[in-house]
Specification:
Blueprint: E1 9-11, E2 14-20, E3 26-30, E4 36-40, E5 43-46, H1 53-60, E6 68-70, H2 72-79, H3 85-88, E7 93-97, E8 109-113, E9 121-124, E10 127-130, H4 132-138, H5 145-155, H6 165-174, H7 181-190, H8 198-209, E11 216-222, E12 228-236, E13 241-246, H9 249-252, H10 254-269, E14 273-278, H11 279-284, H12 286-299
Parallel strand pairs: 7-8, 13-14
Antiparallel strand pairs: 1-2, 2-3, 4-5, 6-7, 9-10, 11-12, 12-13
């Protein structure tokens, strides 16, 4: 993997900044004490640097004991699970240990004590972390139900899922009686496998909570000859209504944009009503989203009960 540009390298007791050389290599220069700050005891980094959160975790791992492992939000970042923006920006490292006396207490670190055998860990990029399902369960003490639903959907996502629905149910059952367990059960009831993005989850929840029918997630759409023409984000198959969320890649990737245009044209030619929603709609005009989908469903025969 190619090293990112201008990524600081922090070492115990000293720090360097990097720059990419003309041949693509990385050279380093020693920084003066006045240029440095200490995010953790014994570790210094360039003052005012905007270290990405995964790098902060890597830096802190240098001072962890063999009994420590990353958990909660830090484990979620390592696994690549979606977190709300306020938590992504926090740059607080969450570390758990089975040994109460070894729990770290330093600035920028939240230490957690867990019962032996109550949590499972895996190794990711050389870092010991809680499993994706256990991480989700732990986050029930920090996050709202909707954020837990988005992470749950990500765990059983369509491509390369972290877990199965059965594994989520087993994880929630193991977590019974702990703080956050009620929120976790509520979130589990709304998790759906096969989702592609947190925004798809947000859109689905908006429609269902408006008392519209629950759509099929990433359902296959075929033409009149039975040939697959698309995988639709939110599919109302009975009413031949398709709700599509246009993410950033639809604007930034020209090839993807043209593929989407052709795909949706084929869907409409097969008699489907297509409604396209983007981030702006969800953020500032959710009522109009509900109205558009409801109007399309009613035009195709749906009636509220």
């Amino acid at each position: 993997m190619k090293r990112a540009r201008k990524l600081p390298i922090a070492l115990r007791g000293r720090a360097f900044s990097t720059r990419e050389g003309s041949a693509g290599g990385v050279t380093a220069k020693r920084m003066r004490g006045a240029d440095l700050e200490r995010p953790f005891v014994g570790i210094r980094v360039p003052r005012g640097s905007d270290l990405p959160d995964p790098w902060v975790v890597d830096v802190y791992s240098r001072r962890m004991s063999a009994d420590d492992f990353f958990s909660h939000a830090s484990a979620a970042q390592i696994h690549g699970l979606p977190l709300p923006s306020w938590l992504e920006r926090a740059r607080t490292v969450h570390v758990s240990t089975e040994s109460q006396e070894h729990r770290d207490r330093v600035r920028g670190v939240v230490g957690h004590h867990v019962r032996r055998d109550s949590i499972r860990t895996v190794v990711v990029r050389g870092l010991r972390v809680t499993t994706p399902v256990d991480t989700w369960c732990q986050l029930s003490t920090m996050l709202a139900v909707d954020d837990l639903i988005k992470i749950g959907d990500a765990l059983v996502r369509r491509k390369k899922p972290f877990a199965t629905m059965l594994e989520l149910r087993v994880g929630v059952a193991r977590y019974a009686g702990r703080r956050g367990a009620r929120k976790l059960r509520e979130a589990l009831a709304a998790v759906r496998p096969g989702v592609d993005s947190p925004k798809e989850t947000e859109l689905r929840l908006l429609l269902v909570r408006a008392r519209l029918p629950e759509p099929e997630v990433n359902g296959e759409i075929v033409d009149r000859a039975g040939v697959k023409i698309a995988t639709g984000d939110l599919v109302y198959r009975e009413y031949r209504v398709l709700v599509e969320y246009d993410g950033e890649q639809h604007r930034s990737d020209e090839d993807q944009y043209h593929l989407d245009v052709d795909r949706l044209d084929a869907v409409m030619e097969s008699g489907w009503r297509v409604i396209r929603i983007n981030k702006s709609h969800l953020r500032s005009r959710p009522a109009s989203v509900i109205r558009r989908v409801e109007t399309a469903l009613r035009a195709r025969g749906w009636r509220s009960t």
